[in-house]
């Protein structure tokens, strides 16, 4: 056994297996060596309160709608690209979006004929001999992964229709296809009006080969400034009156394979448009909607929404009959959910209810990442379970499953949902009615043998192998880990795996792999790293479970509830290239689907911090001009404060003067020595 | 209770009250549906507990605790069962291994870094729980190696099975210099052995065949004609005229009771007759009677 310490220096960790475990008693030891280590999935249980408080219930798709109060228009990269929009504002800011945006000349026609837009003058909107002189500033497009800047131009216009033409310089026409295959140029328009456009699919599960519907509706916030912590949700936000009239200007659906989809448009009801998208392709579809919204005063505003809708392959379903069987397995009650799938591992969950003529009683919620197994009669099943003591039944009660669901492991998109199913397992039900149930033993080890993920272990290890560490992670697609390590003690470990587009699950397994050189560790997660930390703690056994005392998970700028940027970055792939690619986990819908699988007991381990820009009394403040349009204040340039904290977690507050990353207006939040001192001192090891 | 000072360590020898121990002797199949299991219980024996206490378990080091077992009972004694108690603090039990070494060199692996190899839980570094307060016994339902109940403190508690069976010590003589060795395998965490005890249950083995006398008698290996619990080959049942010798005086007594008799001491075979078979036993034991 002493050779273990040495072998850690160069091993390749094969997370070759997963077993379902809770309150672990180990399976019988085998002859496997340490470098064949596995990771085990936890069996999750949430009490009835988590169902009553909607912690572990899947929200409606409408609650997860993508919402926009700005416009982002696209045009093919031709010699002259035209953009037309409607606005009721006098002051409008526009910015061309392209890899060579500063080299394009812009022309404006707001009803008085085309004039050349020339920035830099002190006087706004002054036309001299056909030239519109206005103020502009050069802003970075780094948020889109583009190293070239663009122009942010102030317009003073009359209300109505405005046309902007962008003319490509002749010498730039050789980049017509653009870097990374970019084939379009965009125009971002911010008119500072709160008229909002929302888009959402009508159902959670959308399958390849089938049609699916998207609803489009426009709303006016009642008072967007009334509550700075307001939720971004379409359902939860307070709106004024009925939906506003809106006219669809254009829509596009781009499948994950790059091809374009076909859609039919119908008027659902007053103010709501239905877009039926035909013959869905598997993967993450990017849906773009442009619409003109007419407010209560009859003024039209152009709005754009880009969102990602996950299309599953349709090969994974919960089978019809019987939905669930209940078995007593040692000290566990197992519920086997019959499935039909080609996937080896899925997430499954169900609510459990006691049903009797006198009424229904909620027993709780169980779930977990589970291996697809063979059931008693050879059919495919997913087994989830809990301790029998959770499910005590009265004499006249039967047990049934409600809101059964299965999710993909990658991205946690729902794959199938079933509202209700009886469980017929008389012997087990009788057992659950006994008042003298045996005391719970330590539990079992579940079933290893699930193919997982393989990561290469680093050879440079600081702090020492086998110690107790504080692991600091970066976020989605980060070029580097920007935590100021000198502000942390010597037992801090810098996780670094740059420029990756990982699902929360893959990210979590990568952290587990790299951090398995330590016996135990607390995690400090920046951005998506915080989601990955919570995912790891919730669904798998790892060094996090053995850490303490102290705070096991501390997060900074983590978009637990998603970010509008996810959908828009996907849409902007046509301009800037796909960069790290779309990430369904970080859309509003994807994040809510994922969050609905995390019980309060796991959320309670999270201590979340958020930041925002310094709000000066003068001028329009933001961390990043572009993302400020996408996000609801307060935000840090990527993560909204409302998304950075979760119900059941520990809200450690919002701090001004710090932005999400370097290159934004205020300093990088990861370099705040004051906060880092707290994270360091409070973090569990 | 007696206390010995030995090798700078304190060794405490505690005589425990006798606890009956039973062993499965044989299983006989009767037809296809029934088996007859014969359990024999030790009713002659005693348990003694030998304890060591108070020592640091060094970080990535070895704690070696020798102790000398000197059974209070005279005569040929053998081990019939052993249990080991370990009470220790350590923040990472998965670092620890423990061995018990019999004077003959037979080594029992009590603990072997619980949780390693991992089945996914508790992870590659083994059981991360705190502390031990357990008895290691072959009778344990769960193996210490694979027991790591999350959230329990001490994490290893109750009666658990050792990594290798303590039954390997059965039949060996208890006396001599034993060792208890506890090893911490990983740099970083250390602990304290609060105490460790070895409970040794012994029984008489007068014929020194490695099997306790009662089992020899019950299994038919040895006769116990006078039902005194001592195999006849060890006793002097023919010493009818008790003087420590099987001699002419005993022969004379036997001849004087020749023929039928009920429960007389001259009926060495207990068949109600003093006859040639009794004479054969007497002749077989002729001479000095050294066993009693």
Helix and strand topology:
The complex is a heterodimer of chains A (about 675) and B (about 290).
Chain A: H1 3-7, E1 12-14, E2 20-21, E3 41-42, E4 44-46, H2 48-52, E5 66-68, E6 71-76, E7 80-87, E8 91-97, E9 105-109, E10 115-119, E11 126-128, E12 131-134, E13 136-139, E14 150-156, E15 160-167, E16 184-190, E17 196-201, E18 212-219, E19 245-254, E20 262-269, E21 272-278, E22 283-294, E23 300-311, E24 317-318, E25 325-329, E26 332-340, E27 345-356, E28 359-374, E29 380-386, E30 398-407, E31 414-422, H3 426-433, E32 454-456, E33 468-473, E34 492-494, H4 504-515, E35 520-526, H5 528-539, E36 553-556, H6 564-571, H7 573-576, H8 588-595, H9 600-603, E37 606-612, H10 625-630, E38 650-656, H11 673-682
Parallel strand pairs in A: 2-3, 10-12, 33-34, 33-35, 35-36, 36-37, 37-38
Antiparallel strand pairs in A: 1-32, 4-28, 5-17, 6-16, 7-15, 8-14, 8-16, 9-10, 9-15, 11-12, 13-14, 17-18, 18-21, 19-22, 20-21, 22-23, 24-26, 25-26, 26-29, 27-28, 27-30, 28-29, 30-31
Chain B: E1 2-6, E2 9-15, E3 21-30, E4 34-42, E5 46-57, E6 62-69, E7 77-89, E8 96-101, E9 107-112, E10 132-136, E11 142-143, E12 156-161, E13 176-184, E14 191-204, H1 213-218, E15 245-246, H2 248-256, E16 259-260, E17 273-274, H3 276-284, E18 287-288
Parallel strand pairs in B: 10-12, 11-12
Antiparallel strand pairs in B: 1-2, 2-5, 3-4, 5-14, 6-13, 7-10, 7-14, 8-9, 8-13, 15-18, 16-17
Task: Give a verbal description of the structure.
The complex is a heterodimer of chains A (685) and B (292). With 685 residues, chain A is mainly β. Chain A has four domains: 44-58 and 315-433, Immunoglobulin-like, CATH 2.60.40; 70-192, Jelly Rolls, CATH 2.60.120; 193-313, Sandwich (Immunoglobulin-like), CATH 2.60.40; 457-682, Rossmann fold, CATH 3.40.50. In chain A, α4 (504-515) packs across α5 (528-539). Chain A starts with a helix and ends with a helix. In chain A, a hairpin with a 2-residue loop joins β25 (325-329) and β26 (332-340). In chain A, strands 4, 24, 25, 26, 27, 28, 29, 30 and 31 form a nine-stranded antiparallel β-sheet that branches. Chain B is mainly beta. Chain B folds into two domains: 2-204, Sandwich (Jelly Rolls); 236-288, Dockerin domain (Type 1 dockerin domain), CATH 1.10.1330.10. Helix content of chain B is 8%, strand content 41%. Chain B has helices at 213-218, 248-256, 276-284, and strands at residues 2-6, 9-15, 21-30, 34-42, 46-57, 62-69, 77-89, 96-101, 107-112, 132-136, 142-143, 156-161, 176-184, 191-204, 245-246, 259-260, 273-274, 287-288. Chain B has an eight-stranded mixed β-sheet, with no helix packed on it. Chain B has a four-stranded antiparallel β-sheet with strand order 6-13-8-9, with no helix packed on it. In chain B, strands 3-4 form a two-stranded antiparallel sheet. Chain B is elongated. Classes of the chains: A mainly beta (685), B mainly beta (292). At the A-B interface, loops of A face β11 of B.
